[in-house]
């Protein structure tokens, strides 16, 4: 389907298996390991929502949202999400910065920072409860870009997120970014972003049927 509207996957669809263990460390030092004493086991999860605009313009500020529900009977030790694709590798050996941003991360999931690359964790998630992960981002590179996400029950692989069918709790979203800034303004009284032709950015395009987009379990 074309790059309009939002990717919005919401429903009671169990996603399965484990996020690959061995996440790359971004920091070491003398900090206590965040995966210390992680219990071993399998924990069923359900990704109940994935929401992100599929069509964006340069300098758009948007939110990428993932909600994860614990569908099991035990508390998940440390529910975590890895989000890849906010930046890309720069080509050439002499580049000063090996990674170039596609989206600038304004803020990540509250209280979710970990020592692992592109991974945020929310701690324990009791049975039946839902954790919300939200990234506030600003896009700075035009083109077609892919974001991939995966859910884990812990940070070292001993606690595994799983569900029906043996499929991993992961997915991808493809976003088209135009090189023309949005025709929009900010209402000084409310702070709301208003499109020049009326409405708000969330009104652009039709809601995406998740059956037509890549997502976890498909």
The total count of strands amounts to 16
Task: Label the structural class.
Answer: mainly beta
- Head-to-tail CA distance between termini: 16 Å
What does the largest sheet look like? 7 strands, mixed
Radius of gyration: 18 Å
Count of discrete domains? 1
Structure report:
This protein has one domain (6-212): Sandwich (Immunoglobulin-like), CATH 2.60.40. The chain is 0% helix and 42% strand. It contains no helices and 16 strands. The strands form four sheets. Strands 1, 2, 3, 5, 9, 11 and 13 form a seven-stranded mixed beta sheet that branches. A five-stranded mixed beta sheet has the order 4-14-12-6-10, with no helix packed on it. Strands 7-8 form a two-stranded antiparallel sheet. A hairpin with a 6-residue loop joins β15 (184-186) and β16 (193-195). The radius of gyration is 18 Å and the shape is globular. The two termini are 16 Å apart.
């Amino acid at each position: 389907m074309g790059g309009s509207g939002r990717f919005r996957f919401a429903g009671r669809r169990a996603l399965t298996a484990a996020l690959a263990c061995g996440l790359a460390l971004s920091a070491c030092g003398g900090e206590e390991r965040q995966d210390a004493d992680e219990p071993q086991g399998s924990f069923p999860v359900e990704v109940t929502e994935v929401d992100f605009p599929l069509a964006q313009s340069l300098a758009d500020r948007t939110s990428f949202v993932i909600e994860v529900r614990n569908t099991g009977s035990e508390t998940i030790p440390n529910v975590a999400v890895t989000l890849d694709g906010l930046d890309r590798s720069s080509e050439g050996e002499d580049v000063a910065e090996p990674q170039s941003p596609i989206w600038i991360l304004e803020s990540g999931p509250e209280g979710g920072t970990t020592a692992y690359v592109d991974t945020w964790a929310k701690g324990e998630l009791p049975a039946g409860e839902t954790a919300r992960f939200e990234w506030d981002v600003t896009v700075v590179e035009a083109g077609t870009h892919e974001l991939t996400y995966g859910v884990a029950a812990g940070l070292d692989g001993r606690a595994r997120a799983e569900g029906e069918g043996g499929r991993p709790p992961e997915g991808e979203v493809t976003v088209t970014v135009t090189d023309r800034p949005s025709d929009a303004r900010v209402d000084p009284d409310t702070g709301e972003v208003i499109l020049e032709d009326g409405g708000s950015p969330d009104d652009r395009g039709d809601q995406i049927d998740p059956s037509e987009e890549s997502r976890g379990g498909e």
